[in-house]
Amino acid sequence: MDNYLERLKKLSDLEPKTLEQMALKLSEEAGEVSQAVLSYSDASGSSYKQLDKEDIKEECVDTVLVALSLFYKLSDREGELQELLDKKMTKWESNIS
After folding, report:
1. What is the pLDDT of residues 43-94, one digit of tens each?
2. Could you give the CA distance from residue 71 to residue 65 in angstroms, rounded to a whole number?
3. CA of 79: how far to CAs of 2, 72, 75, 96, in Å?
4. Which residues contact 62 (CB under 8 A, 6 or more apart)?
5. CA gap 38, 26 in Å, rounded
6. Contact indicator for 16, 24 with CB cutoff of 8 Å
7. What is the reported pTM?
8. What average pLDDT score do residues 20-33 get?
9. Cβ count within 10 A of residue 63
C-alpha cells in the first residue's frame, strides 16, 4: 500500500488542477458512485445503464484517488494521513459500538 501512496503523492505533485477544480472533480466522482449504485439496484430511471458491482468498485477507487490527491496537495508531512485516518477511524468505531 505504501508504494501506491508514494505513486499517488508524485502524481499529485504533477496534477495541474487547482484545489477548487479538484474538489469539484471529487464531487463528480462521488456522483458517479451514486449513479452506479442506483443502476445496480435497478432504481427507477437508472437501470438502463446496466452497471454492476465492478462499476461501483471502480467508481469508488476513482473517488479515493481524487480524495487522496487533494489531501496530498494540502499536506506533505509524512505520517499526517495515517494520523488522521487513525483519529477518524477511532471516532467511527466509537460511534458504531
Report:
1. 999 888 999 999 999 999 999 999 999 999 999 898 999 999 999 999 999 9
2. 10
3. 11, 11, 10, 26
4. 29, 32
5. 19
6. no
7. 0.90
8. 98
9. 19
